[in-house]
What does this fold into?
Amino acid sequence: MDHSPILDLTALAALVPDGAKLAVPTDQAGVAMAATRELIRRGVKHLYLVGIPISGLQADLLIGAGCVKTVETSAITLGEFGAAPRFVDAVRNGSVQLKDATCPAILAALQAAEKGLPFIPLRGIIGSDLLLHRDDWKVIENPFAAGDRVVALPAIQPDVALFHAPFADREGNVWIGRRRELVTMAHAAKQTLVTVEEIRDDNLLADEQLAAGVIPALYVTAVAEARQGAWPLGLWDYYGPDEPVLQSYVEAARTAAGFAGFLREWLAQLSRAAE
Amino acid sequence: MSGCTRQELLISTVASLLEGCRHIAVGASSPIPGAAALLTRARSHGATRVSVLGSTRNNFFTNGAVELFDCAAEGRIDAFFLGGGQIDGQANINLVGTGGDYPTTEVRWPGSFGSAYLYFLVPRVILFREEHSRRVLVEQVDFVSAPGTSEPGVYRQGGPHALVTNLALFDFDRKRKRFRLRSVHPGHTLEEVLDNTGFAFDRPDSVPATPVPDPTTLSMIRGTIRREIAETYPRFAAQALTAQT
It folds into this structure.
């Protein structure tokens, strides 16, 4: 096929340009870790990383590896494993620019982008110090009710949305089940890159039961197969996180030298399926 | 302590604040609130719904991450839980960091998550923080992730309801903008609470002890609830809750 969306992992990662506004999901929602390793291997630079609506290991690795210029997120955490050490270090020494947000603000701003709107109003936030540090967030008056103030958030249109999902078909239709934030990401982003556990021969839209959980190929730029592609994170009910690896990461990454050692080893590994 | 673990007492205490809720949502990294919500559901004989983030079996959302927030905005969530690296006497919470000037603070926490929104919209927000110390419970937070109260005219359907720590249970009086000590957990004293709280609070002349879970409650926590919460928090279920023999 001339226009097949199916690429190999390296070719898929090559579609993320330096400086891209890159949207990624939470650690539980399907993180494209194998593709992230390709990005770091390639030495991608100056990313504007957006956590939808938070991020974890992926952000910490990209920040630690020096790939990130700006991070917009509602939190970065390794969950049960504690603080994200490279993120914390980078914020403290000012080496990343931080745009602190709150979860529904990021999700709403993505929804604005998928509707082609310049901004979207949201409840709450007024009185939070987040507003003091977000000069791109404005308090406006509800045009329909005098005295009612709402916060206006500019749309977030990522250059690239990148995530990992269980399966896709050869047309580039991707099954995401009920992880609808992945749909919003794909709708909002200029390009959507997806890695999957499995590429199936049958068209996913041909099955009405599957179709409701599918992101149509219309929104999908490229798909690459990556078995265990979220490792060492988990993928929903398919596989859990690799706890020993995450534990060794959080211990190693406490220092820059420890992080460098972990990264060197991680980059040297082939995909887990090939081991 | 009267035959139950610290965590079992906290679960029972938090659950006592959730009676009558139709829908309780529980955020990330919250095993004790999660267990308390599941206990409330078990006692309600199906009248209470519970959404535990990170769970598959105890999470019926099908519209992605935004559904929790949309639900809250529509008044479909009665109770939620927030914590904080710092919580102050006006129930402002700080999930961002402390020491020095933002953003390059000496201590940096993960971030504000959904607090700057849900605190405004969920009627009964339970502040839950196990550590009860002057570094956590401060007079004034260094960064307001979400304010405890709002000036008139700010759209606000909800806010702080109570604060539960390892030592005590406080109610929050929204009109007075102050906490009021309701009870001190068994094995702890009022002096301990006063010594370890960095903000002023109201209290009755005689402060009662927090009730320990009755045998039926304890049996539920150690049986059904332990099994249900293990799906999302296996380590917690194994380590903090007594296995039923």
Notes: Chain A touches chain B through 54 residues (CB under 8 Å). The first helix of chain A runs from residue 9 to 13. The domain at 6-104+156-274 of chain A is CATH 3.40.1080.10 (Glutaconate Coenzyme A-transferase).
